[in-house]
Queue: 2 jobs
Job 1
Amino acid sequence: MSTRATGMKLLIAIAIGFLIGLVVGFALLYAPSAIRTEAASWLKALGDIFVRLIRIVIPPLIFFTISAAVASIADLRKLGLVLLWMFVLYIGTSLVASILGVVAGEVFQPGVGVGLTPPAGYTPPKPPSAIDILLSFFQLDFSGLLVVGGAMTMIIFAIILGIAVALLGDEGRKLYSFLKLASSVMITMVRVIMYYAPVAIFGYAAWLIAVYGPQMLGAYGKFLLAQYSLSFIHFFIVYSIVTMIGGLSPLKYFKIQSTPFLIAFTTRSSAVTLPYNMEAAKKMGIPDEVYQITLPVGATVNMDGTALYQALSAIFVAQLFGIALTPLHIGLAVASAVIGSVATAAIPGGGTIMLAFVLGVTGLPLEGVGIMLVIDPIADALRTALNVSGDNACSVLITRIVGMKLRSS
Ligand code: ASP
């Protein structure tokens, strides 16, 4: 099931689901409003089932893929180097993306002139403290690891468990074999869930058009133009530079990355794209010891597309409400978008839920989250595609920095 052909067939099925969804959605625009509302709820439920399946599989997927990969590395010094450079590059590229988000907001000015009024008696919400944010990465107890919001703690737990298994040496082999097998099972589970993706995408596309079709003009259109333009600049320029320094021809990178890019674009989940991103990594020649760690962690932690989107959304919301932002606010928007993207769950819509955090830190109306939900499926598609592409670009460079070589294929 792991061939390029499967990826292509899946993409074709998804594209067909999407197109039928668009047709049904437009047709519903002409239906009586009671029928349209009822049908839209059912169509959305088709998509929600997919998201719930992803949410179920995320905790074990993260746990087994990361712990098995860490346990497989006998050389703990090398593991430390991979982890260190992974975090440096992941944070560095997300920072660049988040600055590009501000640039997009300032250049395109998508929300200027709309003139929304902040709700009566509005006072900016109190942002969470740095200590709150830090501690949120470490759940209170084990049950906190089993929810999507506990993904960061799950990563930390899986890394420590993997190290413990490696430290046990021969004694740990049995558990390592189990973790490795379970990791393959989890990745295969995702592939099984993907058989349902075309139906989910049909449902979401039809629902989106039936409910929000007419609103896609005006400020929302401008927002999407700003987001898509700067996201493609980040994709083509930043990742060309990163892969080139890593010793891989950018052309080869873009060609191989196109399949996971499209799968992420249509499914809007970094988690379900993980198996396809891993296949692409293998084709790029990234060694197993690198991508088996950097990609599962990256799927949860490294989200350049989300960082760009969240920073841009903060600027957009301020413009909609006519709130002037000082350089300090802009700095807060950039920093909180980087942290917000790290904390975002790798599921459809995760980035807009976490936008509440960015708006809170920047002191902007939380109503912005509701406003952004309207175009979320379209905004999410490209940000997810960028999220997964960044993981592979960084993995190419990490390979070189830690002194390994890309395998020629
Ligand atoms: N859907 C994105 C992802 O899975 C997260 C987001 O909503 O920004 O990568």
Job 2
Amino acid sequence: MSHPTHEGTVPWPDDVAADYRAKGFWLDQPIGDLLWQTADLRPEDVALVDGHIRMPYAELTDRADAAAGRLLALGLEPDDRVLVQMPNEWQFVVLTLACLRAGVIPVMALPAHRRHELTHLAGLSEARAVAVRQVSRGFDHEQLAHDLATESPDMQWVLATGEPGELDPRSVSLDQILAPGVDRRAERAAADGLRPHPDSPACFLISGGTTGLPKLITRTHNDYICNLRATAATAAMTEADVYLGTLPSSHNFPLACPGILGTLLTGGRVVMLPSPEPSRAFATIEQEGVTVAAAVPAVAQRWIEYQQEHGGTQTRSLRVLQVGGSRLPDEYAVRIAPALGATLQQVFGMAEGLINTTRLDDPIEVITTTQGRPVHEADEVRILDPAGVDLPDGEPGSIYTRGPYTPRGYYRAPEHNERAFLPDGWYGSGDIVVRRPDGNLVVQGRDKDMINRGGEKISAEEVEDLLYRIEAVEMVAAVSMPDPVLGERLCVYVVVKGGRPVPTLEEVRAVFAAAEVAAFKYPDRLEILGQLPLTKVGKIDKRALRQDIATRLAHPNSTQESAR
Ligand code: OOB
């Protein structure tokens, strides 16, 4: 099958791609084809649950096909991008499937993103439409979407749930787009005929990012199917499974590891919940007979504590609890099975590709102390020292990877690609990892300048750039500080220009709010220093600062500004 050339993406080399095809790792089918095959086998079975809505497979695929047709009728074309920012609700799933059918590419913005991030993502992807829930958690997404459309030269449509606003002629009712079809057979036939190229992007994911604003990651139909099938296999998914989607669905983990798409591909059922708050999550698990759920460590921790406080058997149906996104402390790992009655599956993954998991039948020691091993036989992993030399098992080093679902570069980011990828396509995630002789990986730290705040990734550079907008700021450094709940929080060190008033944490946070930045990037703590410590080569010594804040937290009687 010939390659389409997708400007801005970095293809796998031809010989590697041919090998992946020959071995059946790439099926050369669009995701829609496979998913619709699964759906056709069980039209009456409930595919998607959201509150009182219970949508059978037939209705899900009908709506998605009708929606695919309506998106194209609007004027969108295959390969056009739609910036999608929606909460966990059935509309997100139908819209995503419609895009996959039509070959329109969803750009998976996070619900927490605000003008700062969305403007960047819209510009970089040249999005022609934006899709939002009108108002979510008290925030007027529709208004912001209209502002984006006004400012972004490519953006022609604002798709919003609810009655189309009278704001301007670009408004389109997302409810109407996602409504049931009128002529089922015709809409199905039309969508069947679209079949996006399997090497074309199925979606754009957002990178956690270490430099400035987030990068876009193009995931092709071929690579994403490979990701879905491998992660569904390691979670032993079957059509009897009921998956609970509580993490924001646009993250790779709940979307595709196996997540929403992997569950649907297996013929199981997806239950959408807007938040992982324990009382509601537990009630839903019980009511819907949820068998598989995914959580970040902070959520798993809350679930364990809630269960221990309230007792009962609400989570009885839960077969697997996947935990990933940041390091799960071993002391919590051992408590999951006894408290929740589910097998823990640690997941060390990245939007850039490689997914590692523990296996359900692994010894308990592996499950509770490691982050597992690659899910696919063709995943390649190397652990390198700072000079780029391969390290033996047992020695910590930087992890590099290649494989059938790990793209070879970020979208339109040649300079950044030079830093993040080795010349022969190995992606360096910036995690410091030990590979044990049994092949399992243990994540020990990172050498990337990022803060992992409960699974949400914050680029230190992005935060520092924002801080320099403050007049009085002479020098800054953003570092992680340990936190018992989120694992890490964001601490900023600031040197103030001589004679200028020292800003408070509230003032700093107000600057971030005024810049309309996602709230998880607001600093949690501010430390003022006369000067920042430097390394021998004259760079800011962040290791010393992390040590400093850890010491201050351990001895909390120093004068400081804290958000907590
Ligand atoms: C997931 O994806 P991203 O793209 O938000 O973040 C990737 C980074 C990794 O490079 C690593 O630094 C960290 O998140 N991470 C973990 C981890 N899982 C992810 N660090 C320690 N232990 C873990 N278990 O976070 C993601 C994507 C797919 C599945 C699961 C997580």
